[in-house]
Amino acid sequence: MRIDILTLFPEMFTGFLDGSLLGEARRARLIDVCLTNIRDFAEGVHRQVDDRPYGGGPGMLLMPGPVVSCVEAVQQQADAPGHLVMLTPGGRRLDQAGVEELARKQRIVLVCGRYEGFDDRVRETLQPDEISIGDYVLSGGEVAAMVIVDAVARLLPGVLGDEESARQDSFSGADRLVEGPQYTRPREFRGLRVPDVLLSGDHGRIATWRHEQAVDATRRRVPANLSPNRS
Ligand code: ADE
C-alpha cells in the first residue's frame, strides 16, 4: 500500500515513520509512505499558504491554491490516484470499521490542515473523504494522520507477523467486541493472581472464558456494540 501525507510540517513524521512496527513494514516494502510539503506548491516569494478569513474571525485559514495544487500533483505521482482523505474535526468519526475500509485501498492520500482549518473551496473542489479522529480539536491534522497510518499499517498482511493478533484486537471481527483482560508472568503480582482457567491448558474453556470477558468488557465500555439491531 502507498500512503501519501500532505503537510506543512513533514519533519513531524520522522521519528514516527522510523519507529519499530512502521519502520520494519517500510523496510520490508509492505507499505510506502511519501511525504509532500504543501508549501512547495505556494506561490510568490513568501510562499504564503494561509490568510485571514473573509468576514473576520480568529486565526488563519489554509488558502485553497497550494492545497489543491499539491493534491493534484501528488495524485499524478502513481499509476492510479489514491483515496483522498482530509483530516478535519468536522469529518466522519473514525472507528475500527473505518480503519479496515481504508486498509483495503491500494493507495490513500492524507491531507493535513493547520491553523483554523481549510478554505471551504478545498472541500468543494476535491470532494475528499473527511475524517475526524475524535470530537476534540488538534492543532493540526498531522497527529490524526499518524493515527490513521498506525491503525491501517498494522492491518496490512505481513506487518504484525501474526495475522491472528489483528483479528483478535478489540473492535475487530463481526461482533466488534472490546478485548477482555490479558495476563503474562508472573502468576501472582501484589496478591493478584492470574485466573486459573488461563493456566488450565483447556483451550475450549479458555476460549469460552475469553468470550465471556469480552462481552462483559463491551457491556461496560461500549454497550451499543451489543445491541441486536446495531448497523
Ligand atoms: N484536525 C484538527 N482536529 C482534528 C481531529 N479531531 N481529527 C482530524 N483532524 C483534525
Brief account:
With 231 residues, the chain is α/β, with parallel strands linked by helices. The chain has helices spanning 14-18, 20-27, 64-75, 96-103, 120-126, 142-153, 163-167, 203-221, and strands spanning 2-7, 32-37, 50-51, 61-62, 83-93, 107-112, 129-132, 188-189, 192-193.
Protein described:
It is a single chain. This protein has 231 residues and is an alpha/beta fold. The chain folds into 2 domains: 152 residues, Alpha/beta knot, CATH 3.40.1280.10; 59 residues, Trp Operon Repressor, Chain A (Orthogonal Bundle). 33% of the residues lie in helices and 18% in strands. It is built from 8 helices and 9 strands. It has a 5-stranded parallel sheet with strand order 2-1-6-5-7, sandwiched between helices. A two-stranded antiparallel sheet has the order 3-4. The mean pLDDT is 94. The site of adenine has 12 residues, from strand 5.
